[in-house]
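Recap from last week: sequence in, structure out.
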Amino acid sequence: MRGLLLAAVMLGTVSAAHAADMPDLPILRGSVSDGLSKSTHNWDGFYVGGHAGYTADATDFSQSVVGLTNYIFRDSVLQGPTSTWSLLNKTNTQSTHFGGFIGRNWQWYDAILSLEGTYSAFNNMSTSTSGSNSLVIVNPPGEVRAPGITNNYAVSLTGAATAQVKDMVTLRGRVGWDGGDFMPYAFMGAAVGRMDVSRTVTSVVSLRTDTTTTDLFGNTTTTLGAWGPVPAQSGTQGQHRTNTYAVGWTAGLGLEYCIWSGLFARIEYEYVRFSPVMNTQVTLNNARLGLGYKF
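Predicted structure tokens:
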């Protein structure tokens, strides 16, 4: 009996010493999550901030003066052939911009949903282009002519257009991920831009009528006429809109970093495409940095 008691005491002493030598693992002090959980940041709440950046503007003027040429040649056999002419090109320009943003985050675990409004003002972001085209149109479709008559229309068009984007507002929905002090996000929404757009075109049309006759012996003779102006289809048309609004859509990617407490910085890329104004379409690529505060 004494031997069994002595053996039990010795076994307990050895077990206690062995336990004291084991590493202090988190799983031995509590649940597994106490030692393995990551540090998260509370992104939920209202926020406000400012931003500044760089914009690349791509403006498509290829169809800008089509409406004006259609008006000049309305009810004329020249409207069809000239409606496909592209006088102007696509142009590019660059500018800086600055503005602000305000929004609200809703956080569920690591997922973050946001609704955000932004305003951006552009620094003299204007682009323009000009061009010309000329062609002789022979017997245009739809024209009624006497037998042996050939009408030659010498049409010359000269056009110019200008577009300046002044500022814009956007309403964007964001989807983000809580990466601790970092939050990457994607967004998409609607955009409204304020811009000045102008266009002008000048047409000069001359007509030469040639006459072809055949004598009794089958000999054919063509008599060339003299060129003469066509005042009804010659002239200048212009149009200008100031502070007109263009709706569009926006999408992009961004990353926010919590600097301290509610103060955060962001970097962002944004693509904006506006609907055409007077057949002139503007596309923007914005890169910006921002600084904000979440309440």
